[in-house]
From TrEMBL:
Protein family (similarity comment): Belongs to the SEC20 family.
Coiled-coil annotated residue ranges, if any: 37-87
Entry-linked InterPro entries: Sec20, Sec20_C
Gene Ontology cellular component list: endoplasmic reticulum membrane; SNARE complex
Entry protein name: Vesicle transport protein SEC20 isoform X2
Alphabetized UniProt keyword annotations: Coiled coil, Endoplasmic reticulum, ER-Golgi transport, Membrane, Transmembrane, Transmembrane helix, Transport
Localization of this protein: Endoplasmic reticulum membrane
Length: 194
């Protein structure tokens, strides 16, 4: 029958291999991720959790190795622990690369959002300018129309002023003719011999 220490060592080794495979799968998922930033962040968090679990199991294995009675088994287990640590170090580098790429992606998405907002603001400014230009053109047309109306009014007033002068002159001549006629009639009636 296997000693409890041996069973514990085997379980630790199996869990280390399991966590190692899970970390590799998650790193591949991060590489393949083209989705939103939240999905990338979630994958990154899962990788960190698996790394913590992997570190914990490696430490347990190291502790079990130190507790071994036989020096040869102790050395073999410590060698395995070192190999696992080296593999974890390479994966930690991949994790930091994944975090860096995540940060870069987040930064690029932020820049993209800012550029989108700038484009939107520019479009709104262009629309405002177009509306202002249209309003100015409408006002210009209205001023031209009013200018034409004012000129027509000026011509009419000048014409009525001339007409008024002509009418005054005609009234004066008619009055003079009337008075001349009245005087003629009065002269013929009162002084027929003259």
């Amino acid at each position: 029958m296997a000693a409890p220490q041996d069973v514990h060592v085997r379980i630790c080794n199996q869990e280390i291999v399991k966590f190692d495979l899970e970390v590799k799968a998650l790193i591949q998922d991060i590489r393949d991720c083209s989705g939103p930033l939240s999905a990338l962040t979630e994958l990154n968090t899962k990788v960190k959790e698996k790394f913590q679990q992997l570190r914990h199991r490696i430490q347990e294995l190291e502790q079990s190795a130190k507790e071994q009675d036989k020096e040869s088994e102790k050395q073999v287990l410590l060698q395995e622990v070192e190999n696992h640590k080296k593999q974890m170090l390479r994966k930690t580098t991949k994790e930091s690369l994944a975090q860096t790429s995540s940060a870069i992606t987040e930064s690029l998405m932020g820049i993209s959002r800012m550029m989108s907002q700038q484009v939107q603001q520019s479009e709104e400014a262009m629309q405002t300018l177009a509306n202002s230009s249209r309003t100015i053109l409408d006002a210009n047309e209205e001023f031209k129309s009013m200018s034409g109306t004012i000129q027509l009014g000026r011509k009419l007033i000048t014409k009525y002023n001339r007409r008024e002068l002509t009418d005054k002159l005609l009234i004066f001549l008619a009055l003079a003719l009337f008075l001349a006629t009245v005087l003629y009639i009065v002269k013929k009636r009162l002084f027929p011999f003259l």
